[in-house]
């Protein structure tokens, strides 16, 4: 019987057995302690300069300046995804400075300034009411297809504007109010909506622009419309066809800046066609500046079409406008279509007959 198996009566281990266990514990502690002391001694003897030269030989201030200036070399090139960029991408810092110092303040100034101007205009001038009483006779202006197209584009525009503003400015507002968790959900949802609804908006915008191009070709009387500020300057009504000068300006702004925003959005939305980071950085700046500018102008467009002008909104909701509204705002178009005016009672009868015609007819035996 050896010491490790010998036991006293009652199953209690002998003292010699406990001594063997303690020897093994002391040996393990000594081994761990010696390793710790060795690590401390090695750390004290380390030469940082020598280790730096081994890990990245020859790194000095001049070489970092070369990297930052854009010079390439095998020792400081980012090789990810066949990239030729340096470890320090100077263009990325330039993009960040442009975005934070110029684009973001530009957005706050133009959108905030437009809201302030419109608010002051409404408080001082007020709503544009019809000068003559409504005639009760209606002119057909917008077919169902154009109304559905307009509201689809408008709804998507508002969603894209709000999600884009959240991506640009939201962290300065909602992150502090609701915390990181809620803000993380907000920015993730905004990015998802923006990326997926953007292409749908783009297609519908192009369809709308093509559908309206005939009525938005510039005419000589449009120049006079701008000179008189759409009727705010001087006396009398300003000549306007189906679309007045302001509506045409909004159309061509969408046809130019809007399509530029669409194109830059596709560059950002589909980064799998070989565009590099520099291209996407410039696309981001173009997209942001164009979208912020359109958002600011859209505030004016929304105001004029809803609260600012009596009778404008009903044209895009019902398709019909009052004869008086047509005379005062689009007199040249009114002269072309005035023979097609119908009374409100006639419109009601048409709707009633249409509803009756849509009901299933009784079967003949």
Automatic annotation (TrEMBL):
One of its GO terms (molecular function) is formate dehydrogenase (NAD+) activity. SUPFAM superfamilies: Transmembrane di-heme cytochromes. Residues 342-365 are annotated as: Disordered. Pfam families: Ni_hydr_CYTB. It is found in: Cell membrane. Keywords: Cell membrane, Electron transport, Heme, Iron, Membrane, Metal-binding, Oxidoreductase, Transmembrane, Transmembrane helix, Transport. Residues 342-357 have a biased composition (Basic and acidic residues). Its cofactor is heme. It is an enzyme of class 1 (oxidoreductase). The keyword Oxidoreductase applies. It is a multi-pass membrane protein. The chain crosses the membrane at residues 21-41, 106-125, 148-174, 195-213, 249-270, 282-304. InterPro entries: Cyt_b561_bac/Ni-Hgenase, Di-haem_cyt_TM, FDH_cytochrome_b556_subunit, Formate_DH_gsu. Its main location: membrane. Its EC number is 1.17.1.9. Residues 141-319 form the Cytochrome b561 bacterial/Ni-hydrogenase domain. Belongs to the formate dehydrogenase gamma subunit family. PANTHER family: FORMATE DEHYDROGENASE GAMMA SUBUNIT (PTHR30074:SF6), FORMATE DEHYDROGENASE, NITRATE-INDUCIBLE, CYTOCHROME B556 FDN SUBUNIT (PTHR30074). This is Formate dehydrogenase subunit gamma. It comes from Vreelandella janggokensis.
């Amino acid at each position: 019987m050896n010491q490790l198996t010998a036991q006293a009566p009652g199953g209690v281990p002998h003292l010699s057995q406990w001594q063997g266990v303690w020897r093994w514990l002391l040996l393990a502690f000594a081994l761990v302690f010696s390793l710790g002391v060795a690590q401390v001694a090695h750390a004290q003897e380390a030469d940082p300069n020598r280790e730096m030269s081994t890990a990245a030989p020859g790194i000095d201030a001049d070489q970092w300046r070369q990297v930052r200036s854009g010079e390439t070399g095998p020792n400081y090139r980012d090789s990810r995804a066949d990239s030729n960029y340096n470890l320090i991408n100077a263009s990325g810092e330039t993009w960040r400075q442009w975005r934070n110092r110029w684009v973001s303040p530009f957005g706050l100034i133009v959108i905030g300034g437009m809201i302030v101007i419109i608010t002051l205009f409404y408080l001082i001038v007020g709503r544009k009411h019809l000068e003559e009483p409504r005639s009760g006779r209606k002119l057909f202006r917008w077919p169902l297809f154009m109304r559905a197209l307009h509201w689809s584009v408008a709804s998507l525009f508002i969603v894209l504007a709000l999600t884009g503003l959240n991506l640009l400015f939201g962290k300065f507002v909602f992150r502090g109010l609701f915390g990181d968790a809620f803000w993380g959900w907000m920015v993730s949802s905004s990015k998802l909506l923006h990326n997926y609804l953007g292409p749908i908006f783009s297609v519908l915008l192009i369809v709308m622009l093509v559908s309206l191009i005939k009525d938005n070709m510039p005419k000589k009387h449009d120049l006079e419309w701008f000179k008189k500020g759409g009727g705010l300057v001087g006396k009398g009504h300003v000549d306007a066809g189906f679309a007045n000068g302001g509506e045409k300006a909004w159309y061509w702004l969408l046809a130019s800046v809007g399509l530029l925003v669409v194109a830059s959005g596709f560059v950002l939305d589909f980064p799998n066609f070989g565009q590099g980071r520099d291209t996407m950085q410039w696309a981001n700046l173009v997209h942001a500046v164009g979208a912020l500018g359109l958002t600011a102008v859209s505030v004016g467009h929304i105001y004029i079409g809803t609260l600012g002008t009596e009778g404008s909104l009903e044209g895009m909701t019902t398709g019909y406008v009052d004869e008086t509204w047509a005379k005062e705002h689009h007199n040249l178009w009114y002269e072309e279509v005035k023979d097609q005016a119908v009374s409100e009672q006639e419109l009601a009868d048409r709707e009633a007959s249409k509803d009756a015609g849509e009901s299933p007819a009784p079967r003949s035996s």
